[in-house]
Amino acid sequence: MTDRQIPSWSELKPLLRPKPIELDPTRRRLDDALTITDLRRTARRRTPRSVFDYTDGAAEAEISLRRARSLFRNIEFRPSILHDVSAVDTTTRFLGRPSAQPFGFAPTGFTRMMHHEGERAVVRVAERRDIPYALSTMGTTSIEDVAAAAPDARKWFQLYVWKDRSAGEDLMARAKAAGYEALMLTVDVPVAGARLRDTRNGFAIPPALTVKTVLDAATHPAWWLNLLTTEPLRFASLSTWDGTVAELLDKLFDPTMTIADLEWLRASWDGPLIIKGIQTVDDARRVTDAGADAIVLSNHGGRQLDRAPVPARLLPDVVEAVGDRTEVWVDTGILSGADVVAALALGARATLVGRAYLYGLMAGGERGVDRAAEILSREVRRTMALLGVASVDQLGPQHVRLP
């Protein structure tokens, strides 16, 4: 028989430690988010469906995106024990220069649609966190305004080649004058992918006030208030557009571009050149031979060709083929610091994340982006320590096994 007694106040007092009440609702939401998946759930609640689906969705049946995420989920880590990991160094190098983390912020279009703070919020976080940020041609804040928002950030300009080549030359000249370090040429969009969520939602820039969107506004009043009371939502690199995103891409982008056109690009840009959208070993060789300083294995986050190759699976073969001549980076499907570490172990020099920080932006503006970077950074450091790795350059194929 168990003897029982009534606990005294002195015994109860140490157990009664109520969590401090956080009065700031944004801070409360972000503190409760422990993973990027948590931020995604919050983003879904706080933004109109068409906006969330534009960020979250991919092309056609979304097979490419699911396969990329599935590969990361199914990678098996192989930890090594009894190593000194009391100080874990997450520093890596992009284009030969150090970055505090082995991930940078990928270019994303229409960023002020996700949250009115938009690209300015993202580049300010990149500056504080000492990681690179790439501004998209389809951005909603100008090249100059992004540069002014974070003068000390490492900024790259992402270029799509337009049918009007003079417009591209003007954008490159503006980026150079504003101090952008590198040019990132995206090569996997000769035509727009079939993003069916956007089509079904009637997605357009700026959002059209249909019966459907008015009803949606009733459940997302803060988002609509910010949209209607801040500077108009528009593309910063072109005048106006009132059609769908796919129609815009097909109208502007040049499907005739070939590898020979890189000579035209080099005539206008003499800084580092990153080629994004590589999906085969042969193409990695071709652009490396043409002088790319870095390549990004990417299927555009699954937003272009469905059933495309999974970028992370290509890593070992591409690194073996060209890794001694150019930097090999990877994106698509990365939603955790463990994914970042797995990519590095497979041979990537560095990684880019897009949706991960956009979920944070939708969840809480600049503070949400910072929370996303904090989550990823913490997960990278913890995963490395548990693998028995004290620095990024110690990671290798011995630490992972592909499914």
Looking across the biggest beta sheet, what order are the strands in? 4-11-10-9-8-7-6-5
Strand content: 5-15%
CATH class placement: Alpha Beta
Assigned CATH superfamily: Aldolase class I
- Any guess at the CATH architecture? Alpha-Beta Barrel
Sheet with most strands = 8 strands, parallel
Q: What is the terminal-to-terminal distance?
A: 54 Å
Order of secondary-structure elements: HHHHHEEEEHHEHEHEHHHHHEHEHEHEHE
Output mean pLDDT: 91
Q: Helix proportion of residues, in percent?
A: 40-55%
Main structural class: alpha/beta
Overall body shape:
globular
Rounded to an integer in angstroms, the radius of gyration calculated over CA atoms is 22 Å
Protein name: L-lactate dehydrogenase (Cytochrome)
Organism: Cellulomonas fimi (strain ATCC 484 / DSM 20113 / JCM 1341 / CCUG 24087 / LMG 16345 / NBRC 15513 / NCIMB 8980 / NCTC 7547 / NRS-133)
Enzyme class: oxidoreductase
Family: Belongs to the FMN-dependent alpha-hydroxy acid dehydrogenase family.
Describe this structure in words.
It is built from 18 helices and twelve strands. Helix content is 45%, strand content 11%. Helix 2 (25-32) crosses helix 18, helix 7 packs parallel to helix 18 (355-387) and helix 15 packs across helix 16. The strands form three sheets. The chain has an eight-stranded parallel β-sheet. It has a two-stranded antiparallel ribbon with strand order 1-12. The active site is at residue 300.
